[in-house]
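1st attempt posting a full record on here, be nice pls
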Amino acid sequence: MRLLIPALLALTFVGCSCQRHAGETDDAAATTPAATPAPQAVSGPSAAELRALAIEKKRNEAMSEAVDTLHRYLQRIGAGEPEEAGKFWGYQRAPRGNEESDLRTLKNLRALKIENQAPEPLDKEPVPELLRIPVELRATLEDGENRRYKGWYRLRRNQVEQRWELTGVLVAATLQ
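the predicted structure (as tokens):
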């Protein structure tokens, strides 16, 4: 054991024949991380694609907000709260009687089913400021009578208050 220690010390100073010397290369040296080329960074979407995605997201959110506004308005009508429903209109305007048929005057309304189609932009903006939303309504009265209405509502984005307002309507009763 005592002879082993000096022999190991001698090998550390002299060197071993299995050590590599400067300038020698082989396959093992070629696979070191420094010798391998860096992998190409995975490229994400371009700036234009990110902008397009952001605009599409804002567009979808705007249309969803407009539909939500219309549904809240119609729920107020269905609940028999015309004064509350009037707050959804822009320009301090309420629809005239013939614009919504007799929908606002129904007193014995039990249920109002609302079905809308996709909003239709009325302007050329990437995120629309004016929309028309086609609707089909089914009113069930307390006596069991069913009435159907079909038409559209027009909404605009109020830039000051950052909310959607109703600006026009054309809804008519349909025959069953």
